[in-house]
Each structure stands twice: as C-alpha cells, then as structure tokens.
Design goal:
The protein has one helix at about 90-95; strands at about 5-10, 20-25, 40, 50-55, 60-70, 75, 90, 100-105. It is mainly beta. It has one domain: Umud Fragment, subunit A (Ribbon). The chain has an eight-stranded antiparallel sheet. A hairpin with a 5-residue loop joins strand 5 and strand 6.
Length: about 120
C-alpha cells in the first residue's frame, strides 16, 4: 500500500495557523493540489463540506474532499477523476474509525469533484 504523504518540517514559509505540513505523494487531489506539493494543515478546524482535509483511516493518512449523505455515510473523495475508484464511502459504523486531522489551508474553496 503506497503512502499518500510524507511529513515536512515547518519553515518560515509555513502560513500562520498551520499546525503541520505534508508533501502529497500521489495525484489524488489534482488538478487543485499536485503530486509533490506541500499542503499546510490547520488542526483546530474541521474542513467545510466538500473542502479538503487530512484524514486518518485504517493506518493511512489521506488528503481528500469530504461530504456526508442523508443516511450518514461519509464520502472521502479524490478530486482527480482518474482516481475515482479510490474514493471511500464509510457507513456510520465505519466512520467511527476515521479521524479528521484538520483542514488543508487554501486560498479559495475547491469545487465538487466531477467524474466522467
């Protein structure tokens, strides 16, 4: 199983409010967040729905957009349409094993993923 991140030390370029930094090691969030890009994470806030967050699930750390449906299913979504098969849908019982580590600090909100 390929990891989706690597931790990066904080620098002077780390924006205020960012608690930690990750380098994305795959293209799940392209075109908005590119493979190899450093993302900054604010642990004090959960991301708004459809905005990217960093999640821990079953021993993996994932950067994904999220939403919850009317039945309480949590959907962790890849922005990249080529990675749609890597989306996760977690039932109410399964989502108890998923922990949101914080929101990705962005300059503007991301749109809903569009799959073909």
């Amino acid at each position: 199983m390929t990891e989706e991140y690597s931790f990066v030390p904080r620098t002077q370029r780390t924006p205020p409010g960012a608690d930690f930094c990750l380098r994305l090691d795959n293209d799940c969030m392209e075109p908005w967040l590119r493979q190899g890009e450093i993302v900054y994470v604010d642990r004090s806030e959960a991301p708004d729905e459809l905005q990217p967050g960093v999640f821990w699930y079953r021993g993996r750390i994932l950067c994904r957009q999220w939403c919850e449906d009317s039945e309480g299913t949590l959907h962790l979504l890849c922005a990249n349409p080529r990675r749609e098969r890597e989306n996760l849908s977690l039932s109410r019982a399964e989502k108890a094993a998923c922990l949101c580590l914080g929101k990705v600090v962005l300059k503007k909100p991301l749109p809903m993923p569009v799959y073909r």
